[in-house]
Protein: L-histidine N(Alpha)-methyltransferase
Organism: Mucilaginibacter terrigena
Amino acid sequence: MISMLADNKTTYPKQFYADALAGLTTYPKQLPVKYFYDAEGDRLFQQIMNCPEYYVTDCELEIFTQQTGVMADHIIRGGEPFDLIELGAGDCTKSRHLLSLLLATDTNFIYKPIDISTSTIQFLETTLPIDLPGLRLIGMNGDYFDMLAQTAGNGTRKVVLCLGANIGNMPVAEAQDFCIKLRSYLSPGDMVIIGFDLKKDPHLIRAAYDDEQGITARFNLNLLSRMNRDLGADFDLGQFKHYCIYDPASGACKSYLISLEKQRVKIGDEIIAFQKNEYIWMEISQKYDLAEVDELAVSSGFTPVKHLLDSKEWFTDAIWTVKQ
Ligand code: AVI
């Protein structure tokens, strides 16, 4: 059940309210990425993935349609059983290519998709056994690390999928903390397959996060709508404009909402003041080169094994094993 913060008249989801307020009262203002994905945010992200400029999904899908054989060669070790754990499985559009190949080769594994969304796990539990007869599946609904803690130490080898370049939505230092934490739930011999969007022509990257149809802009603005609806805020969406910049040196692609006027916005019982042209930092989509991906692996306790690249070499699914 969602925990609520009560004032005299209204209730707000407590954690969302606390996080939003903390972000909007720090300098520079920022909002946590995890709140982008309400029902409308999910719908807009689907549209982003279908935008001509947003290459990220197609690149990784190409790897999963064309290179699952190589992936499976690394995953399968004789008949040794393993848990195939997917962090943030969603509708598992990509991983189902791997699942069908593993099933076709009679591999001994249990698929354990982890997702924070209850409806996503219910959807997978209902549809996957029909789409992929013979699949052994245990859906896990909750936080990644809480769910990993439940499977850690069951004596079965682990192969963890972390796809979709989701790691790019963390600054590099946070990504390293994430990988170190992930490593702590694994044992020598376990494996991780992790997707990274790679540094490339800066124009292509910027265009992917500033599409012509303005879908990415709506995706960012939707978080303000969500705060209006769920937190009693009164953001005027017409007074904020999406701005995105890619820095080829650091690989950071950052998006902001810029306040078009000096204005005051109510959120719950608080008033947040904005200067004209002040920004809210909304999201980072960090891009890496292959050496940086390998460095991240080593610095967080993994051994880089292989890069599976799409034909344009814009994206890698990196295969790492846990250091002995
Ligand atoms: C989910 N994540 C990897 C996407 C990305 O590319 O950073 C989110 C996104 N935001 C705007 N466009 C896509």
Q: What stands out?
A: Residues 1-9 have pLDDT under 50 and may be disordered. The chain has two domains: 4-35+44-51+204-286, 67-198+289-322.
